[in-house]
Each structure stands twice: as C-alpha cells, then as structure tokens.
Amino acid sequence: MRSMLVIVLLYLAAACNSDAKKGSAAQRAASAGGTSTGFDGNAAYNYAKAQFDFGPRVPGTPAAKQAGDWIIRQMRARADTVIVQSFTHTTADGKRLPLRNILARFRPELPERVLYVTHWDSRPISESAATEAEKKLPVPGANDGASGVGLFVALGDVLKKTKPNVGVDLLFTDGEDYGEFGPPQVDVLIGSKYFAAHLPSPGYKPLYGVLWDMIGDKDLRIPYEMISFQQAPEVVSRVWQTAADLGYGDVFVQESGGEVIDDHVPLLQAGLRVIDVIDLTYAPHHHTPQDTMDKISAKSLGIVGDVATALVTRK
Ligand SMILES: [Zn+2]
Q1: pLDDT at 23 over 60
Q2: Whole-angstrom Cα distance, residue 114 to residue 101?
C-alpha cells in the first residue's frame, strides 16, 4: 500500500461516541488474555508467526508456494467453502508471476454477505530501509502481510464455532505489494484487481467490505483512511462505532489519516463498498527488513479481531 498524503488531524463528530465504561471492561478482558467476542489474539499471533516463518512471501518463490498452501489448508479446516483463484500476471518487465487469491466462505448459502480482505504476499524490496544493501532485501512482512493472515485464520476459528449472522467471505489477495505504487501504479494491487474482474458470482454484491492491512503493530493506532471515508462513509461509521462500543476508541481514533492506495481501491471501483482499516503509524518499519514479529503483538491482533468478529456476529 502507499500513503498519498499526510493530513491535518480532523475530528469528525459524525461517528463520535466512545463509551469509556464499556471500554475499560473490554480492555481488562483483553489484557487478561480473553476478549469479549471469543476472538483469540494469542492464536492470531501464532498463526501470523507460522506465516512469517515461511520467509518472505514474494510471488514466484518457494516460500510463497508453501505459505499459500498453508493458508489453503488452514481455511479448508475452518470454512464451509474455499475457492482458489490461480492466475498468471505478466509484469511490466515481462516476468510471469504465478499468483493465487484465496477466498474462504462461511455460510455460502446466505445472500447477505460481508467481504473481508487482506493481502498475504510480501514485498520483494525494502525501499524504505536505511542502507543501500538493505534496500535490496525482501520485506519479511510481519505486520505488512502476516498480521492479516493471522487475523483471518483466528477469525476462522471463531466463525467455525459461532455461525456468523451474515455470510462471511475472507479474501486473501496476492500480489498487492509487488511493484511500484507510483503514480503510475505498476504491478501492484494485482490480486484485488483480478478479484474485481472475476467475482465469485455474477451478481456478487456484499453488504459491505473491510480491508484489514497492517493491523498488528504493538503500538496500534488506526485513524480513518480518507478514500474510504469519502467513498463509503457508512462503512467507516459502522466499523469505528463498533470499535468504540467495544471500548477501543483510543485505537480506532476518529481522525483523518490521509489517503492510501491499497486493495480497497480496485474493489471500490468495481462498485463494492470496501473500506481500508490500516495503521498508518507503522512508518519506521514499513517496507524495511525490520518488519519482524517483535514489532507486532497478540494484544493488537486481539483488538482488531474483536472488532472484525463483532461486526459479523452481533446484531
Ligand atoms: Zn506493503
């Protein structure tokens, strides 16, 4: 993903109503190792670590093959249906990349659905690293890749036990972070563009969608992403209000966080109301070889997992 602007802080009254009392109760529950929704942040961390331990999931590498196979196995053990979209993308410089989007579906019979998205690939270069030698290294992708995978596998545990009240589709996209974000964008957001052009059914139209990206930072802070805020404000309100109701108003802060080019953009362009939930404050480690497991925490994954779970299990 690529942040386009850094914007002034802007408090928006619209969705602003955090409940401090509920908050402290939820946070006590979270710090005691449990959460209010049944989502297990420690499990999410361990799944993220399993994904991380394959090595950088750069498309076309053996690590990507193994990590993708692992995701498919995990989701086949949890979801009702798993669809794998395998395709080849030819890059601007003529390289042929084998890619896979993985779609895990819960309650596939329900017409009313929620789409969650996360990318599972990791970036081949570390352009934000401090030294020229490090810039050539792939990003290990603990937060930028593995955190979302950990979230989704742990969410699969919950949804297997507790049927969601809507159909839920967990989409793992490939090739999000491969090339240049530009402008122009070249060889990025590849999997989400492919999904937007190859929806799972002709009239596929989820009620709403959420892209969860870089959501494991120990020092988690998630302001609004402004393309989302402009194009699907009702989804932003729903997610931030759910977070506030759970007592996470200090993490899901009601401030502008700038615009980010990310996997939600091709989906919005295809008419799906998908927003980006992303921690833009990961800057020191973002796209560097220091994006490692010590930078993320079970607690942060637990907070985001609670919000993701509450959205689809509570009415
Ligand atoms: Zn990235």
Answers
A1: no
A2: 17
